[in-house]
Design brief:
285 residues; alpha+beta; Lambda Exonuclease, Chain A; five-stranded mixed beta sheet; 5 strands; 47% helix; globular; binds iron/sulfur cluster
Length: 285
Amino acid sequence: MIATVTDPPFATGLTPWAQTLPKHISPSAAKSYLGCSLKFYFERVACIRKKTPAALHLGKAVHAALQAFHIARWRGADDSPETIANAYELAFLRLERDEGPVNFDDDAEREKCRLDGLRVVAAYLDSPEAMKEKPRAVEVLLKEDIPGLSVPLTGAMDLVEGDFTPVDFKSAAAKPDAANAAFDHEIQLVSYQLLMEAATGESPPSLDLVFLVKTKTPQIIRVKSPPADLHRKRRVTALLETAVEGIASNRHHPQPGMQCSWCQFKNECIAWLPGMTAADARRAA
Ligand code: SF4
């Protein structure tokens, strides 16, 4: 059990919440913390800004276009391919302005990225996976108390289908392996089930991922995962609580692995020593 520190000595220069229980935990924060607690610190505690990777920028713009499509379908509004392509173009520009700069090598790479995203959106709208019926809900934000977790669990589901299946959309560079994809996203998928059961009392019949694959001819691939049994729920709750405990205890250290190949915080990581402050980290950036 973690004690909440109400009046911590902020001698390390960390943001106040980093030395207390976080107000809540989301599956993405937990996955990020468990993947590398030091990278989590640089990104979410010291808040060191880096250029947005081009693939992430494309993924966000595609996500915004799909969101526009699902909301239009839910409202019975204009969901034509032209309107959704326009939503994509606007999101591409808005994200560049509000969350950029984006790490494009040059204008040619930017244009290729823009067109790749447009192709992926068009492929989705043309695929059997494009929602035909009115969805039950779009962009569902939930915050619930879950037994075994010291803080509320939060999550944002992209889409909930009529039979309560939560669907999450992922941009990918290559075709996913179904078994690995479900395992990789276990924290997120099971968290959605926990949230839905707590909020509605309904159990989803399936936990689904829809991959938008940016191959030359884009592919839209749905990966279905069975609903979690008690074992999987306990396992994921324990992982979420491990992240809560680590964040509350201010436990951040390098966790070298494959993820270091694409980490943007190598300089800060090399400079790390126990007791590193946010100011130290920013100086090393
Ligand atoms: S380089 Fe590797 S160990 Fe260091 S912060 Fe990045 S992911 Fe973590």
